[in-house]
Amino acid sequence: MRCTDSGFDRIPNGVSRRDFLKVCTASAVYMGLPASFGAKIAEAATTAKKRPPVIWLSGQECTGCTESLLRTSHPTLEHLILDLIALDYSETLNTGAGHQAEEYRAKSIEENKGKFILVCEGSIPVKDGGVYCKIAGRPVLDILKETAPKAAAVIAIGSCATWGGVPSAGPNPTGATAVYKILEGTGIPVINIPGCPPNGYNFLSTVLYYVTFKKLPELDDKLRPKFAYGRLIHENCERRPHFDAGRFAEQFGDEGHRMGYCLYKLGCKGPETFNNCSTLRFNDMGTWPVNTGHPCFGCSEEGVGFTAPLHSPARPLYITPPTQFAPATPEKGKGASAFAAAVAGAAIGAGVVAVGMNLGKKDKEES
Amino acid sequence: MAINRRDFLKLSAGSGLLLATDVTPSFAASAHLPHDAVGILYDATLCIGCKSCMVNCKKYNSVPGGALYQKDGSIPYEYITPNRIYDSPSDLSSRTLNIIKAYKSGTGENKDTDTNGYSFIKMHCLHCLEPACASVCPVAALHKDPNNGVVSYDAKKCIGCRYCQVACPFGIPKFEWENASPSIVKCQLCHHRYKDGGYSACCEFCPTGASIFGKVVDLREEAKRRLTLTPGSYYDYPLKTVDSAMTMPKKVPPYNDHIYGLEEAGGTQYLLMAGVSFDKLGFNPRVTAKAYPELTWDYIVKIPWLIGALVIAGAASHLATRDKSEK
Predict the structure, then answer these.
(1) Closest Cβ–Cβ partner in B55, B100, B111 for A325
(2) How far is CA A320 from CA A46, A296, A316, B103, in A?
(3) Nearest to B142 by CA among B98, B171, B173
(4) Confidence band (pLDDT; 50, 70, 90) for B81?
(5) Would you state the pLDDT for residue A93?
(6) Which listed CATH number (3.40.50.720, 3.40.50.700, 2.40.420.20, 1.10.3720.10) goes with A51-228?
(7) Which positions 187-206 of B are in contact with A (Cβ < 8 Å)?
């Protein structure tokens, strides 16, 4: 599969074919697909008659997820929203405002019924009829319930949308609820991309996967894409060898902390948090919290982030069984008996030789 | 009259005078818990195998007074590579007083389960109430403290006979094979740290409360309490010491209904709990509740008589065989 040159006519100036293929290949690699799928993704993105429309709804959120997405560089956000998808509505990125924006949203939803992707950022308050978060005078709960059945798929971005996040922390005054719980039983496909904020590439890769293959990526039991949330942070952490060797930072700023030792004792939740921060990292410069010396606080994991105290020790989930430990009951070899057999063999051999020599002597004497 | 074995042998070595005395010591009398006995409770179900105890054991025993103290103050790593990246002992040795081992069966997926499961186990000296090592030591280099019950070792007295290595049912005393003037090395429960208010480093640096330090009576009580808890309920596990203010709530696992060290080898000051049976964790199933020195006591108790009999027999034979013609 090759991306034909003609496909690039539709791409605005400033993007070389080479750069664009790089973007698509990188996306393929994030999703654990062979790099050759990059060309396929590029073709899907350029030959599609119409870019897939996206409606971006905002509930109780801080816009951190959008901010994180704005900082991606391959592809950059303008690539995403101008070339790959059609971002028809987003409160942060809309050029229009007020009734104009709302009208355009309604128009896009009607035009692209069953085809658009609905992205939800932020949790949805359900208490008191959802009055705690209103957009254009209407509770976001109603907007979501009205819009979701018309969407091809719903992507819940950020911890707030996926399991409640900060707004749902006790005592949860607004009744902040996860998007998938509100849509439970409706049969509308929901993808959760938790994180506070999630890595922009986890979102991009999911969208590109959908654009390319016209289906959702493989999800786990919490509706998270497996390519991003299949492993514990702990498993691929650069400080993991220190954990295995028993070297820990005991306090912030102590010798172990300065030496880059494992942050488990400072409360790192990496051993119970599923995410790909430790491999993908943030901001295109290879940085992430653990790298800067702060323990992971499990922002993307329900029941950990915003729930467990920041510096309380994690309860490690055991995904990797121990291999690097001395066995409790070592297997004993058959060294002694083998040695005894060898000695016996040597003795018999020596005996045979001695007898043979004696016989030879006798023969000589007789002759 | 309760008399300990060492004093008893000292006396008996003197002369046949003891023949006249009435020696009826009782072992049951000396098998009690020393006053202020301290120990460790290890709960394998809390252990995450982070080896923090192993690392800090070496570090805090390499100071003056510690069991691993070297004259140059260096930490005796197991594998001395120029960059010393990974210290990974395969068993206890003269450089390793404490080790985390693992049991694994089948797929090894489930923690603290016998089949297709795994479990960690922490091995170091169990500090027996009746230590076999001290019992066999001919020069009293191994010694059980009458107050805190720590079985400690005096390198100045050791003659290197290694009887203690043979006698210990848990394989704890290790010999410095590589040393020109070797001695025995074993865990001494960090007794050099007590005077400054410290306690065993393995407990102080355990992040999950798998190892906790305290008085043996309290540890026994804590261990028995854990066995009465309902699996699945939450319990506030103390961290570092048994009477600690710091606790960590954790779901109670299904325990193997056995506290190792309550009775084994006459009772030990190191108590262990696990989800897996202890013979799978490397403990010899032939170790019974019988105190090891008891096994030889029947013989040792007759030694004074034997010495007396030898003196008489020697004198008699001298008298019988002396050359009378000299006069």
Answers:
(1) B100
(2) 42, 19, 11, 14
(3) B173
(4) low
(5) 87
(6) 3.40.50.700
(7) 205
B152-179 burial string, b = 16+ CB within 10 Å, else e? bbeeeebeeeebbbebbbbebbbbbeee
Q: What ipTM does this complex have?
A: 0.77
For residue A271, list chain B residues with Cβ-Cβ distance below 8 A: 48
Of A241, A316, A328, the CB nearest to B280: A328
What are the chain A neighbours of B118 within 8 Å (beta carbons)? 321-322
How many angstroms separate the CA atoms of B120 and B101, rounded?
A: 6
In this structure, the number of other CB atoms found within 10 A of the CB of residue B306 comes to 13
Distance CA A76, CA A14 (A): 12
CATH architecture of structural domain B39-307: 2-Layer Sandwich (3.30)
Q: Does A285 score more than 50 pLDDT?
A: yes
A333 confidence band (pLDDT: 50, 70, 90): low
Of B308 and A355, more confident: B308
Nearest chain A residue to B91, by CA = A326
Q: What residue ranges do the domains of chain B occupy?
A: 39-307
pTM check: above 0.80: no
Of the candidates A241, A247, A271, the beta carbon closest to that of B55 is on: A247
Closest-CA residue of A relative to B103 is A328
A171 contacts A207 by C-beta, under 8 angstroms: no
Domain ranges, ordered by start, for chain A: 51-228, 231-318
B118 vs A328: CB contact, 8 Å cut-off?
no
Q: Which CATH architecture has domain A231-318?
A: Irregular (4.10)
What is the average pLDDT across B108-116? 86
Helices (H) and strands (E) in chain A, counts: 15, 10
> Predicted confidence band at A57 (pLDDT cuts at 50, 70, 90)?
very high
Answer whether residue B268 shows pLDDT above 90.
yes
- Tell me what the pLDDT averaged over chain B comes to: 85
